[in-house]
Design a protein that fits this description.
The chain contains 32 helices and 17 strands. By secondary structure, it is α/β, with parallel strands linked by helices. The strands form 4 sheets. Strands 3-4-2-5-6-1-7 form a 7-stranded parallel sheet, with helices on both faces. A 6-stranded parallel sheet has the order 8-13-12-9-11-10, sandwiched between helices. Strands 14-17 form a two-stranded antiparallel ribbon. Helix 27 (about 625-635) crosses helix 29. The structure holds adenosine-5'-diphosphate and zinc ion.
């Protein structure tokens, strides 16, 4: 029987439930049919093919445009214990041959390739797959690259029409985060999909707050912002290579940990900087759009556009790189008219008026986004053909939108004026009438009306504003003839004759000096523990030489710091802890949580993690389930550390961590573990290099000193401290 998707989700990826329509997509593929998936960045596209890949016999081929993306994905899979590899031009022929051999032996579950590799000159992979392997599924990532209508056309993608010809019965899934109607159609046509379904998801990214700010003298504001986000990771996009270099230099001079990234740098520098950014060793990447496609880093907290993007597609994709972990994140755009002129020039394509028109049109929509007084999120979602409410609460225009207040009197005055002139005059006229204007335009008989001049108490703009508010909330309507006039509606009658109250938004005060409140959700997690867990994660990441977010995402750590798991079973309920990762890292994280809880007298909160109806009555927890205690007991019964590790099927380092706890609490004596001579050497190294990195200490000590020796000695120094 086939492995169930839900059990793969839990055991391999450590997630308890599918998101959006992941489950429907996976079921559809498993029934042998094709799928086109549109999901926003961070929505969880990868799992849509990774889960079926693990359910199906044979290998899943993932076509992906960028080497960086492949490597990241493969690293992530390997860390979860999944057999995955990639084939690309950076590899030595012998490396490639080894991968082909794995394919022949049916040892790989996922293989990532660039499209040009499929029928490449050295290896014709399609041919190879046909003759010597058994592909289970084809996944086309960034599928919009196949279409000229998209904003990121890649001719190599055209090869993909071969897939259905050569493998008619192997299902294909095409995935993208940006596709308009034309592009979508093109993807289906180009891939020659027949028995397919399109799965669309909301493009909304609720955890991103959008801001547009005036660009004049923006540097100080930028610095203020970065100052408040010193610990965070972020990307600043600029239009030109020079601009990235200059801004990165300025920021460095102001004490920030920033570097530039653009296609003009040599490859080694680019790779190096990207790597440092992924590993949180560079906080701010100041980049052109060359940076980011395929960057899966999940803890990017902000994306700033120092220059205007060329189109909404690009803007949305770039801002989408913030907050893939689902935590609150920000997108800030500095907008100035100078950029519009510059981009208009760029949009001029010689001898191609059609293309020029498309580009200019897209630019206009970008400008309209910056200038809108409406909800930015609504604008973006509507752009992608999606309905959205008028108010999202998490964009600058919504944040600035004042609260509703009782404006019944104001509404009655406006409506009476409309009624008195028999619903035959436009907005400006009504407002001038209310304000008692002396203008000739106001008819003499209207100057006799009771409503003439009853609105002298408010400026003209305010009356205009409230009248528009009445229009947008249906208390008034505009006729649709050549000279539109204001008319009453059913709703207005309720106000005029039945005393109904009207609530309206006050006019927006547009000041650019006020600081927005940063809308950070207040999660009730243990902040100090979260910081400790981040340190632990970084130490492991450095030891294994992978980016920290691939070990666990920030949201997994927040989950730990919120629910405080005490046992391995508890841990399996924490997002991101699959079987493989629990085995590998579980104990280290559990120990950290337990230590923190012991120190602060906290109990686990794992019960809160369960659905309400399953919640058990909260009993005082018995501490003999304490995993450290079990290790201690076995050790005290005379087992060696190795024996305890085997008995408990845990790693030696985990048992060492357990025993360290008892060394630091004074219950075990360090001299039983480490000779005074070694202790002395380790102490000296600690004095020199600090305690942050075990690896650093290990590297600077003689070979004969083990990680265990260092752990124990560190624990011993804690009692004395
Ligand atoms: P996309 O490729 O759509 O931009 P990813 O596949 O990289 O997004 O997923 C974004 C993040 O969400 C990843 O950290 C991923 O592990 C996580 N994720 C995806 N699906 C789920 C799920 N069902 N439950 C919890 N986290 C998920
Ligand atoms: Zn909004």
């Amino acid at each position: 029987m086939m492995v169930q998707p839900a059990s793969i989700l839990q055991s391999v990826f450590g997630y308890t439930s599918f998101r959006h329509n992941q489950e429907a997509i996976i079921d559809h593929l498993l029934s042998g049919k094709d799928a086109v998936v549109l999901m926003p960045t961070g929505g969880g596209k990868s799992l849509c093919y990774q889960v079926p890949a693990l359910c199906l016999e044979g290998v899943t081929i993932v076509v992906s445009p960028l080497i960086a993306l492949m490597k990241d994905q493969v690293d992530a899979l390997l860390l979860s214990g999944v057999k995955a590899a990639f084939l690309n031009s950076t590899q030595h022929p012998s490396e490639r041959e080894a991968i082909l051999q794995q394919l022949r032996n049916n040892e790989l579950k996922l293989l990532y390739v660039a499209p040009e590799r499929l029928v490449g000159s050295e290896i014709n992979l399609l041919q190879f797959l046909k003759e010597q392997a058994s592909p289970a599924l084809f996944a086309i990532d960034e599928a919009h690259c196949i279409s000229q209508w998209g904003h990121d056309f890649r001719p190599e993608y055209r090869i993909l029409h071969e897939l259905k010809i050569q493998f008619p019965s192997v299902p294909v899934i095409a995935l993208t985060a940006t596709a308009d109607g034309l592009t979508k159609r093109d993807i289906i046509d180009q891939l020659q999909l027949k028995d397919y379904r399109v799965f669309e998801n909301s493009f909304n990214r609720p955890n991103i707050t959008y801001y547009v700010k005036p660009k004049r003298n923006y540097y100080d504001e930028l610095v203020d912002y970065l100052e408040q986000h010193k610990e965070d990771s972020g990307i600043i996009y600029c239009l030109s290579r020079n601009a990235t270099e200059k801004l990165a230099e300025d920021l460095k001079a102001d004490g920030f940990n920033a570097e530039a990234y653009h296609a003009g740098l040599d490859k080694t520098t680019r790779d190096q900087r990207q790597d440092l950014f992924l590993k949180d060793d560079i906080n701010i990447m100041v980049a052109t759009i060359a940076f980011g496609m395929g960057i899966n880093k999940s803890n990017v907290r902000y994306v700033i556009h120092a220059d205007l993007p060329k189109n909404i597609e690009g803007y949305y994709q770039e801002t989408g790189r913030a907050g893939r972990d689902g935590l609150p994140s920000e997108a800030i755009l500095f907008y100035g008219p100078g950029d519009v002129m510059k981009l208009k020039n760029f949009a001029q394509i010689d001898n191609n008026p059609e293309q020029t028109k498309i580009l200019l049109d897209k630019l206009d929509k970008m400008v309209a986004f910056c200038e809108t007084k409406q909800c930015r999120r609504k604008y973006l979602l509507n752009y992608f053909g999606e309905q959205a409410p008028d108010y999202c609460g998490t964009c600058d225009t919504c944040i600035h939108k004042p609260e509703l207040s009782d404006q019944t009197i104001v509404a009655q005055k406006i409506m009476s004026a409309v009624a008195r002139v028999n619903e035959r005059f436009g907005l400006g006229y009504i407002v001038d009438l209310l304000r008692g204007s002396n203008s000739e335009k106001i008819r003499p008989e209207h100057k006799e009306l009771k409503v003439y001049g009853i609105g002298k108490d408010k400026p003209r703009d305010e009356w205009m504003h409230y009248t528009r508010e009445l229009l947008s909330s249906g208390y008034l309507q505009m006729s649709d003839n050549q000279y539109p006039v204001l008319q009453l509606t059913e709703k207005s009658k309720g106000v005029l004759f039945q005393g109904e109250k009207v609530f309206l938004h006050a006019p927006i005060q547009i000041t650019t000096t006020t600081k927005e409140p940063v809308v950070y959700q207040q999660l009730p997690y243990e902040k100090e523990l979260f910081e400790q867990l981040k340190k632990l994660r970084n130490t492991i990441a450095h030891e294994e030489n992978v980016p920290a977010y691939l070990i666990f995402s920030d949201s997994s750590l927040i989950d730990l710091a919120t629910y405080l798991p005490f046992t391995t079973e508890d841990l399996s309920k924490i997002s991101g802890f699959g079987v493989y990762k629990i085995e590998k890292y579980g104990e280290a994280f559990l120990t950290q949580v337990q230590d923190y809880c012991n120190e602060h007298g906290l109990d686990t909160r794992i019960e809160l993690k369960q659905p309400k109806r399953e919640r058990k009555s909260k009993l005082p927890r018995e501490r003999e389930t304490d995993t450290k205690k079990i290790s201690l007991d076995l050790y005290q019964k005379g087992m060696s550390i190795e024996e305890v590790a085997i008995q408990r099927t845990l790693s030696i380092s985990t048992i060492e961590t357990h025993l360290s706890y008892y060394i630091s609490s004074g219950k075990l004596d360090i001299t039983n573990f480490v000779s005074p001579n070694k202790q002395e050497l380790i102490q000296a190294a600690i004095a020199k290099y600090g305690k942050a990195s075990l690896r650093l200490l290990k590297e600077n000590l003689p070979e004969t000193i083990s990680y265990g020796d260092i752990r124990f000695t560190m624990a011993a120094t804690e009692i004395n401290a």
